[in-house]
Amino acid sequence: MLPFVxxxxxxxxxxxxxxxxxxxVLEHCQFIxxxxxxxxxxxxxxxxxxxxxxxxxxxxxxxxxALMAKGIGPGDAVFTTPFTFFATAEAVALTGATPxxxxxxxxxxxxxxxxxxQAIIALLEQDQERHVLPRSGLDRCGKPLExxxxxxxxxxxxxxxxxxxxxxxxxxxxxxxxxxxxxxxxGAELNGRRAGSLADLAATxxxxxxxxxxxxxxxxxxTDSDDAAAIVRSLAxxxxxxxxxxxxxxxxxxxxxxxxxAVLLAKLPVFPDELKLRAQVxxxxxxxxxxxxxxxxxxxxxxxxxxxxxxxxxxxxxRDPLRRHLADHGIPTAVYYPQPLHLQPAFAxxxxxxxxxxxAEGCARTIFSLPCHPYxxxxxxxxxxxxxxxxxxxxxxxxxxxx
Length: 403
Ligand SMILES: Cc1ncc(COP(=O)(O)O)c(C=O)c1O
Hints:
The protein is an alpha/beta fold. The chain has helices at residues 7-13, 15-28, 35-48, 59-69, 87-94, 113-125, 164-173, 226-235, 258-267, 271-288, 319-328, 358-366, 378-395, and strands at 52-56, 76-80, 98-101, 148-155, 177-181, 189-190, 193-194, 201-205, 219-223, 305-306, 312-315, 367-370. It binds pyridoxal-5'-phosphate (PLP).
């Protein structure tokens, strides 16, 4: 089976640099907050175009730190997408706040600003007719919900930035904190600005399979705010103040290991080229599959957007037989995500039902992703595309048409 993401090939290309970087850490032995962490933070901040980058232990912790730094907690409503990895809403729930799910745009798979506006007004006016809200009236501790709108967590799904121009306007109009979940989009751009710089605070993940991945768990928080950065830094080290044994707030142990920072520093020099290669793979798929675009909908990029191509995801009503056909020929595929978050058992206490988020539910039923990484060879891309074309044109035609 072809690997879905080829980390081995990437390692071979940077082996000498990565081994040397790890060796340097083994020599100086500053495994916690060693010099590589500060160096990485400086490079990440410069790359994203923000004042501060704070490296941390995972993308999930980055989200949690961003939410905590803004004082988000019980009684706060945080508007977010149901079509994302669980961690997005999990981090919200971990603060004690309540996620309010808002359906996605069918073309970008990102939070739909028009629905978001309706959801905020619905909550303010307690009007379920305007937009579906949690029905149970109870929080996860069983206490009655009296929610005030507090924040928006937008996700740049599959590497494509959400519509921050509209999201920022909505956040400003309702005095909400805007947080960018850039776990999948580090390296992406919106109107010339990079992911990580598109909201009040942003969180990314360095999970190994992400566009920029380390060799374990890792993440970072980005912000232009000196105050927020100082609080995030403190929260990531047990709420520590000036002195190591002076704790100003309840925090976490959420630092990035020096070894992971060293790996990331060794990988950063090739990251821009890797992004270009990802975009070329995506472009080649889209070109090759254009004859069947009406039954196999390719990713769509709004003007001004550059995706980091964390995933190349397509929609088709005949997903499962097509995936089986590809698997039979050694081609792995993946489904991100088969179950939207409003229908996850962990959020059952909110009382959402099937049908509440029709676009996200439809995508969950019909979406799948092809291998898309910088080390995919052109003949592999062409073979995957040919297998798909052959399957659709010869065996499944006529396909049910999707509007
Ligand atoms: C959208 C999104 N948010 C958050 C996370 C959490 O990141 P991590 O796995 O580094 O905790 C992920 C990771 O898959 C993600 O895709």
